[in-house]
Amino acid sequence: MIKVILFDLDGTLTIDRNSYLLDLDALNSIRDLQSLGVKAFLVTGNSYPVSRGLATYLGMDGVVAENGCVVYAGEEHFLCKEIDHIIVKEFESKFGLKGSWQNKFRKYDFGFYPPQITPPMEEWALENGFSLKTSGYALHLSYNSQGKLIGVRKLLDLLKLDEKDVAAIGDSLTDIDMMKLAGVKVAVANGDDELKAIADLVTKGKSGEGVKEYIMSIVNALHGRNQRTCP
Ligand SMILES: O=C(O)COP(=O)(O)O
Ligand SMILES: [Mg+2]
């Protein structure tokens, strides 16, 4: 039985990819799910303050932020090597990138625009021991080569959860790492092809609509179970 759902944020809980507007119907369906005892976590490439602030106001049960490097589930865990801000600036100017406004609040995983990785960047990253990823929203630079996987592993340890009790839903390449430890892997309809290829289920709807569709299927199944067990 699914006890925890991991939600990517950008492109998944938003109304579309490349939008920052949250899908309010998807958020309401998450509340319905939580009222049935299923826990909800944000697992995102966003900075810790943004992720934790959002999770608090959305009533989420915790977060994995900075693409796996920071975990909060009642207490904080920091899992990656910090990047010196001088290196961040060097990377930005060397490749003519614009740093994310959240970079001043980041320690382990930094974001840049445009979100495309080029071969010279890959060469530089390899020489300097970094890993590059793209979410479609931003290009990410980190020493962490395992991405969201390390944060999700920590979260499951903290919650003493088995992978089979976990579902994850996302839209981009950076969610493939999150899915590695999820018993049920869900991709939204407008997600990256590589993610859809490893998913157990691809929703009919895009982004937030797809989230609502998947959650309602669980909510209905749980209601069905409860009705069967009530005399
Ligand atoms: O920070 C990003 O680039 C995207 O964040 P996400 O992991 O919630 O999609
Ligand atoms: Mg995303």
TrEMBL record:
It catalyses: 2-phosphoglycolate + H2O = glycolate + phosphate. Its EC number is 3.1.3.18. GO terms for cellular component: cytosol. Belongs to the archaeal SPP-like hydrolase family. Mg(2+) binds at residues 8, 10, 171, 175. InterPro entries: HAD-like_sf, HAD_sf, PGPase. CDD domains: HAD_Pase (cd07514). The active site is at residue 8. It comes from Sulfuracidifex tepidarius. This is Phosphoglycolate phosphatase. One of its GO terms (molecular function) is phosphoglycolate phosphatase activity.
